[in-house]
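Chain particulars:
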Amino acid sequence: MNILSIDTTHRVCGVSLMVDSKFQTATKFVEPGKQAEQLISTIENITQEAKVTYEDLDAIAVNNGPGSFTGIRIGLSAAKGINLVKGTRLVAVSSFESVAKQLLSNDNENKILVVLDAKREQVYVQLFNSDISPLTDAKLMDINDISSINVDDNFILTGNGSKLVEKILCESEYNFTIENQEAISESESIALIAQIKLQSKNGDNNISPLYVRKPDAKKQI
């Protein structure tokens, strides 16, 4: 399966091209005001180097959030633009799904709590089954409210917000282990999740942003 994946939700613009389960990946630090330009040039470079055209792709996978509001819009706009011109299938993958897919425990049978740093003493939170199917909706929570999470058995805590809530969860006597404490979304795991969705026929061209937090004109994460 050939999948082009895009992640523009944080300070690095990441693009991966998966061709027959092999990856070619490119990342660039985002320059203010040049995100869209850098993304398009990165896509062009990686597809040209691999000698892959849009017609060769099974899908374009894009991170739809949460993350930088501007970055989310740029990534979705690029994917939708290619879809409009080339008709390439689109698949939305969240930051939560991307981080959960990066777990080191390939034989994991435990639930997965993904916690991402949302700044302002808040975290983005979502709970998954071991197969990365969601058990809850994505939430924005104050750090101190993490003890209200309803998970009654051993789980894996992951994501770059883990260190912010680890002590609170321990004090609340949750039973968990920690993996990938610094993990953020990445284009490779976005492609892997998209592959699963395509195989289960869950791809959807009607992709939309997952902001979780409402856009703030004065301050963005």
About this structure: The CA atoms of residues 105 and 179 lie 9 Å apart. Confidence is low (pLDDT under 50) at residues 217-221.
